[in-house]
């Protein structure tokens, strides 16, 4: 694959780590902690199921769960703002902006393949 393929996904990795750190810090600020609530591992399951096919990985991960996040995040931002939680709304706005790029990378490389 082209060098730019790896550059794009390293950027995604950096941003996903940033997202986790921002949310982890915000949970602590509101007196909670990562793991307090049940979470699904669908992303990991999808990674496992597509481990032998790059085009399947690109067709699934950035174009389904990450794309779905583009549908679910705006109402979450509104809910945070309505509840007076501008700090969380700001974090979600940052994540939403980055995730658009992740889905775009997924579409770009899927088409490429
Ligand atoms: Fe992402």
Care to describe what's here?
The longest helix is centred in the N-terminal third of the chain and has 27 residues, at 3-29. It is built from five helices and no strands. The mean pLDDT is 96. It is mainly α. It has a domain at 42-113. Helix 1 (3-29) packs antiparallel against helix 5 and helix 4 packs antiparallel against helix 5 (86-112). Helices cover 77% and strands 0% of the residues. Residues 12, 16, 66, 99, 102 line the site of fe (ii) ion.
Overall, the morphology is: elongated
Note the total helix count.
5
- Unique ligands: fe (ii) ion
Low-confidence stretches: none
What is the helical fraction, as a range of percent? over 70%
Q: CA-to-CA gap between the ends? A: 9 Å
Give the gist of this structure.
The protein has 113 residues and is an all-alpha fold. The protein is built from five helices and no strands.
Fold blueprint:
Layout: H1 3-29, H2 42-49, H3 54-60, H4 65-82, H5 86-112
Helix pairs in contact: 1-5, 4-5
